[in-house]
Amino acid sequence: MTETKLASNLLQQQAYVNGEWIDAEDGRRFEIRNPVDGQVLAKVADCGVAETRRAIEAAEAALPDWQAQTAKARADILRRWFDLVMQHQDALAALLTAEQGKVLSEAKGEIAYGAHYLEWFAEEAKRIDGDILAAPSQDQRVLVLKRPVGVVAAITPWNFPNAMLARKVAAALAVGCTFVAKPAKETPLSALALAALGEEAGLPAGVFNVVCGSDSSVIGGELTANPIVRKLTFTGSTATGKKLMQQCADTVKRTSMELGGNAPFIVFDDADLDAAVAGAMAAKFRNAGQTCVCANRLLVHADVYDAFVDKLSQETEKFQLGNGADEAVTMGPLIRPSAVDSVQAIVSEALEAGAVATVGGQGSELGDCFYQPTVLRDCAPSMRCFKEEIFGPVAPVFKFETEAEAIQLANDTEFGLAAYFYSRDYARIWRVSEALDYGMVGINEAAISNPMAPFGGVKESGHGREGSKYGVDDYIETKYLCMGGL
């Protein structure tokens, strides 16, 4: 897809700061390429410290008026933003597929998923209540107010370039914060399109700003060092999240971190195997395996192991690799050639150690960013595919004998984002759900994320929650007033 084919009011190639579309001060731009064929989609303003600082200062200037707005006024703008996103769902999905690679049906799903966070938090904006607490004496009153934390900075990933931004900005703006977003350098176009629709929805200048750049460390350094920013929200790798937390420590910023995962997918011997296979297909291969909640380790009871592997392999063979813009295609490329190299290294190590590829196991002749959907059987916990987040379309299957062994294997990781299991034994469902050390658990269900539920992990998968009634907590300060002399 060429630049001209994408041209529309949604294809923005400048940064969005203080309600204006601006170039980098030095005029530099960087290229955004389609991972399918490497074609240039756009040349975006290459921002640095100066532009980021302008955005932060604009957000600070806009903060008093925005937080002074009534909750309903903020809610009305968020609701209009939701309506506009849904009106432009097809165009936004085409843009997303072009820059990120996921198939068009998944891109449309992401647009709707992200939009519904705008809708949800538009409604939650009107439900942020304080309290009057019992006082220690008759002449006092104790009041608790909920106040916005202030200017929020967000660093968002390339795998869900629309939805990860939407669910952060919706919560922040709903409570009265202002916002500076730094999207991934691979996929800034979705964020800029969201800004264009936010402006149309009536967001005042400075409330929502987007700065893009080829050097993430430069922009990230300013966001973490600038004392005006009071909160940083990040979705990405655990290694990067740790660095950002260290950088935020000097100014004692609030942080919320949605980091890496290593999700177990457990299939017990009493499970509905067809349902478990369907769930594994969805949990493992969505976005070509490039999601933080992907099923990374499939743990299957010995009694149903062979039957499960056979069924999973048969379904995996049905994928059609190609350009995600083609409606016949069911799996697109990985984000960059180096991602393919990383996946291949993990697969090769497993094969050398005794695993068997029943499907796939190598790259594709379609291009440097394509990897064949793969199923590996006879995997062992000593392999990299057990210990590391694969972030590609590879399903390694491990065998277990007892419930206790399955729980031990599932929890044997520093990560704790999502876990899944299939069973029809209700006593087991309670035991295993409580024993799994994860922030989210899908029970006979692979699609666990929605605006009504709190999304987030434990251990080295991060802290904080996005979505649900809990999703505003990370953007709020609790302020206590003691009134005496009554």
Automatic annotation (TrEMBL):
- Active-site residues from the entry: 258
Please tell me whether the keyword Oxidoreductase is annotated for this protein.
yes
Task: Give a yes or no for keyword Oxidoreductase in this entry.
Answer: yes
Record CDD domains: ALDH_F5_SSADH_GabD (cd07103)
Q: Which UniProt keywords apply?
A: Oxidoreductase
| Annotated EC | 1.2.1.-
Domain named Aldehyde dehydrogenase is located at: 21-480
Q: Which domain of life is it from?
A: Bacteria
Q: Name one GO molecular function term.
A: oxidoreductase activity
Q: Which NCBIfam families match?
A: SSADH
Family recorded in the similarity comment: Belongs to the aldehyde dehydrogenase family.
This protein is called NAD-dependent succinate-semialdehyde dehydrogenase
